[in-house]
């Protein structure tokens, strides 16, 4: 029989299910981020226990492995110096003539829709270590971002 007519199972034609990607580098978090991670582990554990469908349970177990790894590797970021931009800082900036207030947080806590950006984001990297009143380069432009205010989040 030709191999073209032989079919072992439906499973062989499905896309492989890989683990959820974990951002490279250390898992630096704010105290709020650590609490959110722990809460997410508890939430997903409860969902796994309540799942009745095998496919749903498999998906949730995959998600649980991600959150357990993130909880196990979480490191509280050191608090930045007073007035210095760092992880856990709330920063008011002026970029392209617009004023915006951002909070710099860990990867899993990031939510750009609520002005929370991950410390590894390009804008956050440009701001890290700067002080209020300074300007920093961003997007290939020197002095592109003016830091107007820095406070603890």
UniProtKB/TrEMBL annotation:
<dbReference type="Pfam" id="PF01272">
    <property type="entry name" value="GreA_GreB"/>
</dbReference>
<dbReference type="GO" id="GO:0006354">
    <property type="term" value="P:DNA-templated transcription elongation"/>
</dbReference>
<dbReference type="InterPro" id="IPR023459">
    <property type="entry name" value="Tscrpt_elong_fac_GreA/B_fam"/>
</dbReference>
<feature type="domain" description="Transcription elongation factor GreA/GreB C-terminal">
    <location>
        <begin position="82"/>
        <end position="151"/>
    </location>
</feature>
<dbReference type="GO" id="GO:0070063">
    <property type="term" value="F:RNA polymerase binding"/>
</dbReference>
<dbReference type="GO" id="GO:0032784">
    <property type="term" value="P:regulation of DNA-templated transcription elongation"/>
</dbReference>
<dbReference type="InterPro" id="IPR036953">
    <property type="entry name" value="GreA/GreB_C_sf"/>
</dbReference>
<dbReference type="GO" id="GO:0003677">
    <property type="term" value="F:DNA binding"/>
</dbReference>
<protein>
    <submittedName>
        <fullName>Transcription elongation GreA/GreB family factor</fullName>
    </submittedName>
</protein>
<feature type="region of interest" description="Disordered">
    <location>
        <begin position="1"/>
        <end position="28"/>
    </location>
</feature>
<feature type="compositionally biased region" description="Basic and acidic residues">
    <location>
        <begin position="1"/>
        <end position="18"/>
    </location>
</feature>
<dbReference type="InterPro" id="IPR001437">
    <property type="entry name" value="Tscrpt_elong_fac_GreA/B_C"/>
</dbReference>
């Amino acid at each position: 029989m030709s191999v073209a007519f032989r079919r072992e199972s439906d499973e062989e034609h499905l896309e492989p299910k890989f683990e959820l990607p974990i951002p490279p580098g250390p898992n630096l978090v704010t105290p709020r981020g650590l609490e959110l991670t722990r809460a997410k582990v508890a939430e997903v554990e409860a969902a796994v226990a309540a799942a009745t469908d095998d496919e749903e349970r498999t998906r949730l177990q995959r998600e649980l492995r991600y959150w357990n790894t993130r909880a196990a590797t979480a490191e509280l970021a050191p608090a930045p110096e007073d007035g210095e931009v760092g992880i856990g800082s709330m920063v008011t900036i002026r970029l392209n003539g617009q004023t915006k207030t951002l909070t710099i947080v860990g990867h899993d806590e990031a939510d750009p829709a609520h002005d929370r950006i991950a410390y590894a984001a390009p804008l956050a990297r440009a701001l890290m270590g700067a002080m209020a009143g300074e300007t920093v380069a961003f997007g290939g432009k020197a002095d592109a971002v003016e830091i107007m205010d820095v406070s603890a989040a």
